[in-house]
Amino acid sequence: MTGMEMRAIVLDGPGEPEDLRVRRVPVPDPEPGWVRIKVEAFGLNRSEYHLRAGLATNARFPVIPGIEATGTVDAAPGGEFAPGQQVVAMMGGMGREFDGGYAEYTVVPAACVIPVRTGLDWATLGALPEMLQTAHGSLHTGLAIEPGQTVLIRGGTSSVGVAAAVLAKEHGLTVFSTTRSPERTAVLRDLGVDHPIVDDGNVAEKVREILPGGVNAALELVGTNVLPDTLKATAVHGTVCFTGMLSDHWTIPDFYPIGYLPNGVRLTAYGGESTDLPAETFQRYVDLVAEGKLPIRIDRVFGMDEIGAAHRIMQDGQAVGKLVVRVD
Q: Where in the numbering of this chain does the Enoyl reductase (ER) domain appear (predicted)?
């Protein structure tokens, strides 16, 4: 497509949500080992907020943001995928080290691409890749969950929190999940959460009122500012996985493990790649969504021209579930 143009959202440097605009730029050409995807939809992720806000450490500008994309293969010089094949792509440097998914076409390494077969609409499929990858990896790699266990999800109305609750229930766990808004507890119950908890800063106390011994596993999506409380909610020999920083608190100053960690509670972390979500596992999840057995929540779907409004909603924490942009 040399010489042809496409619509894309280009970020020249850190700025406000309203600074995001659609431009016309050249359609990128793939080299062998890379795949050009005609993008139909892409989900919004906290990582892209960090990039736009100037909090990312591995960014280069100008760049087309977007750590995920969903669509069809337009070209694959290496023959890894067939033209027209349904695929999703995520991570591997997308939207940071090279241009990402906020565009009509994106070119990504073949290793970032996962094939999929589904009749789901593009917006629904576009909500799934990064959300499911992060939730799946956090639960199975970070926490090594087992059926019959209990799990606490801190930051439960975020897109990953919603997905983690649904996947944990599908795996046979009892789920505790938090929200700062009392009116959102009904949403958590509708997703199958057994114990919705209003987060007033004392989640551990509320968890132990229900389960005196504490939970077997806890997924931290809020940040290091609440991590001590999450650790206190976890049982001896239980595990806390640090995955998210919704509060933008990333580090622990003057970390002293013996004073910080409760006796016998393990602390792990997860920050995975597309390879952590095998194609067959992703396909199984997509099939469950299509069959109505995996109730993934999409908060809103936007057009490309509404990207500023979408980022504002993400930044202000107004969404319950995933925000998706449909490319049309």
A: 15-325
The boundaries of the domain holding residue 283 are 5-129+274-326
- Report the run of H or E that residue 195 belongs to, with start and end: strand 195-198
Q: pTM of the predicted model, to two decimals?
A: 0.92
Residue 89: closest CA among 124, 125, 52, 55: 125
SS3 197: strand
CATH of the domain at 95: 3.90.180.10
Query: Each residue of 170-224: pLDDT tens digit?
Result: 999 999 999 999 999 999 999 999 999 999 999 999 999 999 999 999 999 999 9
d(CA 144, CA 126): 27
Q: Express each pLDDT in 107-123 by its tens digit.
A: 999 999 999 999 999 99
CATH assignment of the domain containing 197: 3.40.50.720
138 residue type, one letter: S
Rg of the chain on CA atoms, in Å: 20
How far apart are alpha carbons 315 and 328 in whole angstroms? 24
The reply to whether 134 falls in a domain is no
Residue 135 lies in a domain: no
Judgement on whether residues 149 and 79 belong to the same structural domain of the protein: no
| Local structure of residue 139 (DSSP, 8 states) | I
Helix (H) or strand (E) holding 90: strand 86-90
Sheet of 266-269, strands arranged across: 195-198, 174-179, 150-154, 215-220, 234-242, 266-269
Task: Give the Cβ contact number of residue 316 at 10 Å.
Answer: 9
Res. 245 pLDDT band, cuts 50 70 90:
confident
Per the structure, the count of domains in the chain is 2
